[in-house]
């Protein structure tokens, strides 16, 4: 009974699957004739020689190869050719099938496809937008990591106003952060310090003439370990009483709208007047203009603040710009961010 040598059977089977029916049997026959002619008495070869034994060892080594690159497949094809009468094309297909592909064209396509993204990134210059985003995210991570204890997935908190102001100071600066307000909208903050005229409050400066005031009770820093650039600061606040500037007459029975904030003009020394004075340029007398030191003041009466990196995913989503953080709370925000990052990683 005639038995196929194992290595010849593997190559022949691979070729049989990859070639048209009309040529498959011919190729297998060619491989077998080449392999058996020198060692099989039935095919006129007489006893096995030292050369045929070396050939057996070479083919045994070949069948263990599983190349991962086109260059590797070509090298394997060359070795297959040297031990058979396969054409270059047939040897490339056989080598590709041994590597786990359908044929050489299939291997070429898949391997090139996996290389394409990195090649594209290297060949195309990074856009200004991408460069800004990368720089902004790196700076935010540097500031987060600069806070003592901010490592891994740390959750840190501070309860005293001086400590809050000190921690926040490292994150202040135009283009360095973005603060989301309780009812929506936001600003980059350039400063945070104790209020001189409202005890228990912090002033959050946007510009020298635009300031927000809140009454924080706790500052939280939530570090997101899998993507530190998505880490954030969360300022929990207690309710701040109204200033009295917009209070109606006690005898007026008209229902009062509950305010989330007050927009006022700060004349200095803790003296506030209604917002319209800013547009007019004076309070009551046109001959008595607002002082040069006057500034717009927004008093946040209720709700929490959230500071994120300028180029963070949170800041880039319009649906987060409606005060969503204030509805979720700090723990809810963290869970939402981590779940989103987990889905993106899949």
Kindly state the number of beta strands: 12
Name the helicity range: 40-55%
Q: Ranges with pLDDT <50 over ≥5 residues? A: 1-53, 116-121
Strand content: 15-25%
Terminal-residue CA separation: 55 Å
* Mean pLDDT score: 82
Count of alpha and pi helical runs: 11
Series of secondary-structure elements, N-terminal to C-terminal: HHHHHHHEHEEEEEEEEEHEEHH
Physical arrangement of strands within the biggest beta sheet: 1-7-8-12-2-3
Could you say which structural class the secondary elements and strand pairing correspond to?
Answer: alpha+beta
What is the approximate shape?
elongated
What oligomerization state is this entry in?
Answer: single chain
Largest sheet: 6 strands, antiparallel
> Mind telling me the C-alpha Rg?
37 Å
Question: Mind explaining what this structure looks like?
Answer:
Helix content is 42%, strand content 17%. It has helices at 6-18, 21-36, 50-62, 70-82, 88-98, 104-123, 128-145, 161-169, 276-280, 313-316, 324-345, and strands at 155-158, 178-180, 186-187, 191-194, 202-207, 210-214, 216-222, 232-237, 261-268, 271-274, 295-300, 305-308. The strands form 2 sheets. The protein has a 6-stranded antiparallel β-sheet. The chain has a 6-stranded mixed β-sheet with strand order 4-5-6-11-9-10. The model is unreliable at 1-53 and 116-121 (pLDDT under 50).
């Amino acid at each position: 009974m005639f038995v196929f040598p194992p290595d010849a059977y593997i190559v022949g089977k691979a070729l049989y699957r990859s070639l048209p029916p009309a040529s498959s049997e011919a190729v297998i026959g060619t491989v077998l004739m080449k392999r058996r002619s020198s060692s099989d008495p039935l095919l006129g070869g007489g006893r096995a020689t030292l050369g045929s034994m070396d050939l057996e060892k070479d083919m045994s080594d070949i069948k263990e190869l599983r190349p991962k690159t086109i260059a590797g497949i070509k090298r394997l094809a060359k070795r297959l050719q040297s031990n058979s009468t396969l054409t270059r094309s047939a040897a490339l297909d056989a080598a590709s099938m041994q590597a786990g592909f359908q044929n050489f064209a299939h291997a070429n396509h898949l391997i090139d496809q996996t290389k394409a993204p990195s090649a594209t990134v290297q060949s195309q210059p990074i856009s200004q937008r991408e460069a800004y985003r990368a720089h902004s995210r790196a700076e935010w991570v540097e500031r987060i990591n600069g806070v003592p204890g901010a490592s891994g997935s740390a959750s840190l908190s501070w309860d005293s106003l001086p400590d809050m102001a000190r921690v926040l100071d490292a994150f202040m600066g135009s283009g360095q952060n973005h603060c989301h307000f309780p009812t929506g909208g936001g600003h980059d903050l350039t400063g945070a310090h104790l209020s001189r005229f409202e005890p228990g409050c912090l002033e959050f400066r946007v510009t020298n003439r635009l300031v927000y005031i809140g009454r924080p009770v706790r500052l939280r820093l939530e570090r997101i370990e899998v993507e530190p650039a998505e880490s954030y600061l969360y300022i929990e606040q207690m309710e701040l009483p109204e200033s009295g500037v917009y209070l109606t007459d006690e005898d007026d029975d008209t229902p009062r709208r509950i305010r989330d904030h007050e927009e006022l003009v700060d004349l200095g020394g803790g003296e506030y007047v209604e917002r319209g004075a800013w547009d007019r340029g004076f309070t009551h007398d046109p001959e008595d203009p607002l002082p040069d030191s006057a500034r717009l003041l927004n008093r946040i009466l209720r709700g929490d603040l959230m500071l994120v990196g300028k180029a963070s995913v949170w800041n880039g989503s319009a649906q987060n710009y409606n005060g969503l953080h204030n509805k979720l709370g700090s723990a809810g925000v963290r869970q939402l961010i981590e779940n989103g990052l987990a889905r993106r990683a899949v």
